[in-house]
TrEMBL record:
One of its GO terms (cellular component) is vesicle membrane. One of its GO terms (molecular function) is structural molecule activity. InterPro entries: Gas-vesicle_GvpA-like, GvpA, GvpA-like_CS. PROSITE patterns: GAS_VESICLE_A_1. This is Gas vesicle structural protein GvpJ. Keywords: Gas vesicle. It is found in: Gas vesicle. It comes from the Bacteria. The keyword NAD does not apply. It holds the Pfam family Gas_vesicle. Belongs to the gas vesicle GvpA family. The keyword Ribosomal protein does not apply.
Amino acid sequence: MNDGKMEHSLNATNLADILERVLDKGIVIAGDVTISLVGVELLNIKLRLLIASVDKAMEMGINWWAHDPFLTAGAQAPAVADPAMLERMDRLEAALATALASNQTTPMKGHK
């Protein structure tokens, strides 16, 4: 019987339960915004938002943060040079120095 008092459900869900469900299952929110003027489309924005836990996102194949240099620990480390590339640069610099040296001693054609 209701005697004017508010009844509370025993199966009430609190915010933590809702958040746990959302992160466990994931939510996708999608929408398109188009701005047109006199029938001419000026701007079209496609919005896609996925809210999920990291585990759920990785399960779905989404792991862009693992390769983002600003979000990974390796982003702060300097890049290691390729030894083959360094060797090639040394050979090119030596060849350029040789070519410049021989060009300075050889008179140019057409000049006296």
